[in-house]
Specification:
By secondary structure, this protein is mainly alpha-helical. It contains 15 helices and four strands. The protein has a four-stranded parallel beta sheet with strand order 2-1-3-4, with helices on both faces. The radius of gyration is 21 Å and the shape is globular. The termini are far apart.
Length: about 350
């Protein structure tokens, strides 16, 4: 399994269906799912110079995860990124694969997506295509073969058409979501179709085609100092203009000695979304000598914030609280209420005064 060829094949099939995926998403979402997933997998392709004949598959898959999380806006970025992270964990130390190995890795990926998205099979999501694909891989015999999984994934995607969406942006439509294929499930089916399009001669071993040296990703560590300041506040949004406007507005009410900052958008704010690694880095900066309260806007921002939190060292996690509140109102209340209280106390104040109406 030469990873670069698989990624190239996935990019090819997604590009061919970009407009179709956007059309599916336009019916029940923002209309940009196809463009988002194409951008994400093309970003992986641009990083395949890091894949070498001697590089470990788990490291290559982690590169894939990082690119998907940083380049795909909306919920698909953290969900697909977390899936590749799970595959990386499952494939650690392996360089050849059976159908069962792939099935086990995909099951771990499904579990992670389900946990992060708080979803399950039957709720009109990508899980409805991924779950039957996993079962098909488990039942497959002989040499590694993605064809049964691709057929099962396509059938799973088609089965989302009569379903009513209960998760994600499509759930806002209620009954009107019935009659449309879920774009996330469709993209999963296309990814499996892409895997099938790679020549069978490339399925023997897991390595990568390029002979360049793997680049090592260095993560800066922060010195943790005693908490000496008020609680810092971080706003996480899918939209750079929205976050900037919110912070500018509430800054007029700011009187305490604390930092107020935001993380929003991807590719310099050119696209909607947020990057877990950038969020993580910002959290580390804001918790050097202070506690931190984080306020997010949409579900995808929540997912990326939670993913960033999970990557933090325990001593930093202990300084961070995440509030689930109305975005602008919650940020305003946090700023005007931030006078010498702890992150726990500030979170309680904000959540009690800026509840999201269910």
């Amino acid at each position: 399994m030469k990873l670069t060829k698989y990624i190239q094949s996935i990019v090819n099939i997604l590009q061919q269906n970009e407009s179709r995926l956007n059309d599916l998403d336009a019916a029940i979402g923002d209309g940009d799912h196809g463009s988002n997933v194409v951008r994400g997998f093309k970003a992986i392709l641009e990083q395949t110079n890091q894949f070498t004949e001697s590089s470990l598959i788990e490291k290559d898959l982690m590169v894939c995860a990082q690119q998907l999380m940083s380049k795909i806006g909306g919920s698909s970025g953290p969900l697909l990124g977390s899936a590749f992270m799970a595959l990386s964990i499952s494939f650690k130390g392996k360089n050849t694969f059976t159908n069962q190995d792939i099935a086990n890795g995909l099951q771990l990926a499904l579990d992670r997506i389900s946990q992060l998205g708080k979803s399950t099979v039957g709720e009109k999501t990508m899980l409805d295509a991924l779950s039957p694909a996993i079962q098909a891989m488990k039942n497959a015999t002989g040499d590694l073969n993605f064809k049964p999984a691709a057929i099962a994934a396509q059938q799973g995607a088609e089965a989302t058409i009569p379903l009513k969406a209960t998760k994600g942006r499509a759930s806002y439509l209620g009954e009107r979501s019935i009659g449309h294929m879920d774009p996330g499930a469709c993209s999963i089916a296309l990814i499996f179709e892409g895997l099938c399009n790679v020549d069978k001669d490339d399925v023997a071993n897991v390595s990568s085609k390029n002979v360049q040296h793997t680049q090592t990703v260095h993560i800066d560590t922060q010195t943790i100092l005693p908490v000496t300041k008020n609680v810092n506040i971080l706003v996480v949004s899918h939209s750079e203009p929205l976050a900037k406007a919110t912070v500018t507005f509430v800054s007029e009410m700011k009187s305490g000695d604390f930092k107020l900052d935001y993380i929003a958008g991807i590719d310099g704010g050119a696209h909607f979304g947020s990057d877990p690694q950038i969020i993580k880095n910002k959290i580390e900066q804001l918790t050097v000598d202070a506690e931190l309260l984080i306020i997010y806007d949409l579900g995808s921002s929540k997912m990326n914030t939670e993913m960033a939190y999970s990557m933090l060292a325990p001593e930093i996690q202990a300084r961070v609280k995440i509030a689930s509140v109305a975005f602008v109102e919650g940020t305003l209340i946090a700023v005007v209420s931030n006078h010498g209280n702890s992150a726990d106390e500030l979170k309680a104040t904000v959540e009690s005064q800026a509840k999201i109406e269910k």
